[in-house]
Design a protein that fits this description.
heterodimer, A: mainly alpha, 68% helix, B: MetI-like fold, 2 domains
């Protein structure tokens, strides 16, 4: 706190415990008045629901019924009991979300890093290209989903049209891939489509975060590495990657969180299909809670998914920390 | 220098090959620009394709092989969608989206800036505790709040109203966290001078802190508008009446109704994209600055 010699009279009055407070900055209630609007919203829509959600998950909370009996951990135990109604759909959803996360997170770590390195040099139009690559991110998932449902259509989509126009059908057939490719209606193509369209859509976000991180790495480190005869790859391995360690940790955590939230792409492009193969955990949770109105069970599902996510995040932190020691 | 640039000192033995080195750097520069051009097509192409398709007739849009440019450009898809007496109130959805995103943005600016000011500049008990709790929610997955918040919205009588879209998202920690950094950087001397002149904290907040944080406020305004405009999960569950939907929720309805009318669907998608694309083009500096800063906390 800054101390000044001004208004000594006031200073004498408000001094307590020997630390001089020359200026009375504000009344005791002022900070709470400033905090009030945010706190009111925060308590209503974050703090209360966090506790209320646990409470719901411990009850047979059916929106349609007046009586909501306490059932203890039954909603959670049901998710581990293969005879229960929720078991099959929940673990099918968890599997779908896991497949999507495992497939998309590495791509969303590596491709944006390559893009950031590409953009991290001085050239005319740098700001322009940065904005161009970020542009898909400002579109909503509903727009992106509609667009890719059309672009990837097996019969009339431009992707399959481009494959045949470029004469790639023969090459694909030689690899054992039958054409036209069923991008939406058969696996593994549905997953490939959903992962690639998500990379297209969200890659700009991670690229910008990496770019900010790259600009924080001191140039002298690269100069020193070059004097020591380091190749481009060695500079990347021993200067760029260590310099980005915290940024990488941040990116892997938020990307995992975002992938676990996967919902709109499956709803708009594959409707959860083919079969139930792309019906993600979030689709299952929302179906259970807001379509079948078994909200206690849905709350239990969402807490279980959150627990899985925090385990993954902790593993990520440990992995990055572990590398630091070596 | 960037990694792809060759080292300025050529290794011994290659020194005589100055011409070759220049050729190599020309080739590298050429490849660099070619790569940028390809990437630009990859990222902008689908958005352009959306617009081109919306200007076609349905037989042309679904023809194999496809035509690149519309052979008989038509605005029929837009005319059908934007008619006031059409089967889907797309203009109404547009208005709902605009109103919800604007009100949400204003609420975020008020709630986040006042709280961030208190946490950055004022002294009170539990200040550190408040801040820690708020920031910790940045890493809590949002889906755990879906069920309880649906019931809270129900109790408040806000289901199927615009308030369900405007208010809950304003509890996000990002705005508070983001603005607090700016308010904390304000020099103490400025505040003290104002106090001596008899200003109270509200006056310091509105006349000194806010004007000094204008770029940060602009960033937060754009980001909160974009997030709300594009929100998908929440509106499709808390809104029921067709005339109260937002554009993303309405697009899902359109997809169900016009499964094979691609120009209409692309026109709908384009109507939902234009405002955010225009906003982004004019404010891209703020958006990108905001995203870049969100990574610094990591």
């Amino acid at each position: 706190m800054a101390t000044t010699t001004m208004s000594p009279g006031r200073s004498a009055r408000t001094t307590d415990g020997g630390s001089p407070r020359p200026i009375r900055r504000h009344a005791a209630w002022t900070p709470y008045a400033f905090m009030a609007p945010f706190l009111a919203i925060f308590i209503t829509f974050v703090a209360v629901p966090a506790v209320f959600g646990v409470w719901m998950s411990l009850h047979d909370w059916d929106y349609m019924f007046e009586v909501k009996p306490f059932v203890g951990l039954q909603n959670y135990l049901n998710l581990f009991d293969s005879a229960s109604a929720a078991y099959q759909s929940f673990w099918n959803g968890m599997r779908a979300t896991a497949i999507f996360t495992v497939a998309s997170v590495p791509l969303l770590m590596a491709v944006p890093l390559a893009m950031a390195i590409l953009l991290n040099r001085r050239f005319p139009g740098r700001t322009f290209f940065r904005a161009v690559f970020f542009m898909p991110y400002v579109l909503g998932v509903a727009v992106v989903g509609l667009l890719f449902r059309f672009v990837l259509d097996p019969n009339i989509g431009i992707v399959n049209a481009a494959i045949s126009a470029l004469g790639l059908e023969g090459a694909l057939n030689a690899l054992g891939i039958s054409t036209p490719i069923p991008w939406i209606t058969a696996q593994p193509w549905a997953w490939i489509s959903l992962v690639l369209m998500t990379v297209w859509w969200t890659l700009g976000f991670n690229t910008i975060i990496y770019l900010a991180g790259l600009q924080d790495i001191p140039r002298e480190l690269y100069d020193a590495a070059k004097v020591d005869g380091a190749t481009g790859w060695q500079q990347f391995r021993h200067v760029t990657l260590p310099g980005l360690r915290n940024v990488l940790l941040f990116v892997v955590i938020i990307t995992t969180l975002a992938s676990a939230n996967m919902f709109g792409q499956s709803v708009m492009v594959t409707s959860g299909g083919p079969g139930d193969s792309t019906r993600t955990a979030l689709m299952v949770i929302l179906g259970e809670g807001l379509e079948s109105f078994r909200m206690g069970s849905a709350a239990a599902m969402s807490y279980l998914l959150a627990v899985f996510l925090s385990i993954v995040s902790i593993l990520n932190v440990l992995m990055v920390r572990g590398r630091r020691r070596r | 220098m960037s990694l792809t640039t060759p080292a300025p000192q050529a290794p011994p033995g290659k020194q005589s090959a100055g011409g070759a080195a220049t050729t190599r750097s020309v080739v590298r520069t050429g490849m660099f620009w070619a790569l940028l051009a390809v990437l630009t097509v990859v990222f902008v192409g689908p958005i352009v394709w959306m617009f081109l398709t919306s200007m076609k007739t349905n037989p042309e849009a679904t023809s194999v092989p496809p035509t690149l440019l519309p052979e008989q450009p038509t605005t029929a898809a837009y005319e059908g969608l934007l008619r006031l007496d059409g089967s889907y109130p797309v203009l109404r959805w547009f208005y709902n989206s605009l109103l919800a995103a604007t009100l949400h943005m204003l609420l975020v600016l008020v709630a986040a800036s006042t709280a961030a000011y208190a946490l950055a500049r004022l002294r009170f008990r539990f200040r550190g505790g408040f801040f820690a709790v708020i920031v910790s929610t940045l890493f809590v997955p949002g889906f755990i709040f879906l069920m309880p918040n649906y019931l809270i919205i129900d109790r408040l009588g806000w289901l199927d109203t615009i308030w369900a879209l405007v208010v809950p998202g304003a509890a996000g920690a990002f705005g508070v966290f983001f603005l607090r950094q700016f308010f904390a950087m304000l020099p103490d001397e400025l505040e003290e001078a104002a106090l001596i002149d008899g200003a109270n904290q509200w006056q310091i907040f509105t006349r000194i802190a806010l004007p000094n944080a204008k770029p940060a406020l602009a960033t937060l305004a754009v980001l909160s508008f974009l997030t709300n405009w594009n929100d998908f999960i929440w509106p499709i569950y808390v809104l029921f009446s067709p005339e109260r939907l937002t554009l993303p929720a309405g697009l899902r309805l359109l997809q169900g109704a016009y499964t094979t009318d691609y120009p209409v669907m692309m026109a709908g998608a384009f109507v939902a994209s234009v405002p955010v694309l225009i906003l982004f083009i004019f404010t891209q500096r703020y958006v990108i600055e905001g995203v870049a800063r969100s990574g610094l906390k990591g």
